[in-house]
Design goal:
Order of helices and strands: HH
Helix content: over 70%
Distance between the termini: 19 Å
Length: 58
Amino acid sequence: MPVRTPWWLNLLALAAALGPCLWLGLPWYVAGPAALATGTASDRAWRYALNRRSRERR
């Protein structure tokens, strides 16, 4: 069953990717892979947290 990451966590990941890129003055195309990386990391962290919570309830 696929797990949906909450919108606020995706927004936080996007801000974590775009903020440093804008602050450092990097080109816009650098922000794309950075957003993909932080989005993937947040999805995996959310999935890990849900799996851990379900294991603790058993």
